[in-house]
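Data deposition worksheet. Section B asks for the primary sequence of the deposited chain exactly as it was used as input, without tags or linkers unless they were present during the calculation. Section C holds the resulting structure in token form. Section D is free text for depositor observations; keep each observation to a single sentence. Incomplete worksheets are returned to the depositor.
Section A, Depositor: J.P.
Section B:
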Amino acid sequence: MLLQRAFAALALVLVAIATTVAAFDHGPPSDSLPNVGGEWKSWRSTFLITPESGGYRIEVSNPDGFLGGIYKGEVKGGVIVVTGPMAALCGEIRYAKDDDALEFCGEAFQRGPQS
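Section C:
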């Protein structure tokens, strides 16, 4: 009887330890991104990103290209999943922490002067 109680107590301690480790092992949520609002520029395009109803409104100015238009974006899995003119070909915007840059449809965007 004493041995059964000892095993039950040990099991409870192990469950508590496993729960605590699992709670702290995940780090920040995978859907988190830094503040990406503001103006971003590539060699031929400009983004104007504004927060909008749980996601983003992304206005792309691309006078001589095909990316231009208004996109809607929602953060999922650490990227911005977009809907809009080129979303069928380029469905997400990725953030590169090391460069503080965005990547969309093969173009790298750096923060503009108004960010």
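Section D:
The chain has a mean pLDDT of 77.
The CA atoms of residues 42 and 107 lie 6 Å apart.
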